[in-house]
Amino acid sequence: MKFALIAKDKPGALEVRKANRDAHLAYIKDTGVVSQAGPLLDAEGQMCGSLVILEVADMAAAQAWASGDPYGHAGLFASVELIAWNRVIGG
């Protein structure tokens, strides 16, 4: 099952994001359940959030993945939303 994780950073948290980016990317690689991912961008083109597409068994597994994300542990996010998602277009 696919889930979209949509997370918005706390205001002024770009340095927190940058400081934890390598750990976040390693977590994505190590867990092996992310099919697509990338930062959300503000009007100036700066990273301000995340969109992550997870392929996991259920919502509990998606929540567990989100709970383990180094960005979350660093307190980067003002909000995190997990939504079941159905890919219609794209590979």
Question: What do these coordinates show?
Answer:
By secondary structure, this protein is an alpha+beta fold. The protein has one domain (about 1-85): Dimeric alpha+beta barrel (Alpha-Beta Plaits), CATH 3.30.70.1060. The chain is about 35% helix and about 35% strand. It is built from three helices and four strands. The protein has helices at about 15-30, 60-70, 70-75, and strands at about 1-10, 35-40, 45-55, 75-85. A four-stranded antiparallel β-sheet has the order 2-3-1-4, covered by helices on one side. Strand 2 and strand 3 form a beta hairpin. The chain is globular. The two termini are about 15 Å apart. The mean pLDDT is about 95.
Name the overall outline: globular
Instruction: Report strand order across the widest sheet.
Output: 2-3-1-4
Query: What is the element string, with H for helices and E for strands?
Result: EHEEHHE
Individual helix count = 3
Approximate strand percentage: 35-45%
Tell me the CATH superfamily.
Dimeric alpha+beta barrel
**Number of strand elements:** 4
Provide the number of structural domains.
1
- The CATH class turns out to be Alpha Beta
Helix content: 25-40%
